[in-house]
Amino acid sequence: MDKDGVLFTAVPLFAGAVGAYFGIWVLAGAFLLLAAFMVFFFRDPKRLTPSDESLVVSSADGKVTKVEERDEGMFVSVFLSPFDVHMNRSPISGSVRDVKMFKGQKRPATSNSASTTNERNAVTIVGPKMTVTCTQIVGILARRIVCRAQKGDELAVGQKFGLIRFGSRTDLLMPKGVSVLVKPGDRVRGGETVIAKLDS
Question: How far apart are alpha carbons 169 and 163 in whole angstroms?
Answer without folding.
Answer: 10
